[in-house]
Specification:
The chain is mainly beta and about 100 residues long. Helix content is about 10%, strand content about 30%. It has a 4-stranded antiparallel sheet.
Length: about 100
């Protein structure tokens, strides 16, 4: 980042966040009425196209606890190069996006 930015650009930022890179599958979901819609990076998921269990996991969430108009983004841990052991098939939230703003 320092090589790509000037010092003044770096200094002008109010906050910086550093997060560990997780080697899983980029995934997201949102509430639409009483339904949870889930996505891989580019595709809406279904029982047939489930992103190694992510679709099924989202369907177990309590829809009443999710905010309407918010997309929840994160990483669904599946094995690629790293084996996360007991943390496999868990969702790690890293961002939310408000569709109404």
């Amino acid at each position: 980042m320092i090589e790509a930015c000037t010092y003044s650009e770096i200094k002008s930022k109010k906050e910086e966040f550093y997060q560990e890179k997780l080697d899983g599958a980029n995934a997201s979901f949102k509430r639409v009425g009483d339904e949870i819609i889930s996505f891989s990076r580019k595709t809406q998921l279904s029982i047939e196209n489930n992103l190694r269990g992510f679709y099924e996991w989202t369907q177990t969430l309590d829809v009443s606890k999710l905010l309407e108009g918010v997309i929840y983004f994160g990483e669904w841990l599946v094995k690629h190069k790293l084996d996360y052991g007991e943390n496999m098939n868990q969702f790690y939230l890293f961002d939310i996006y408000n569709e109404f703003v």
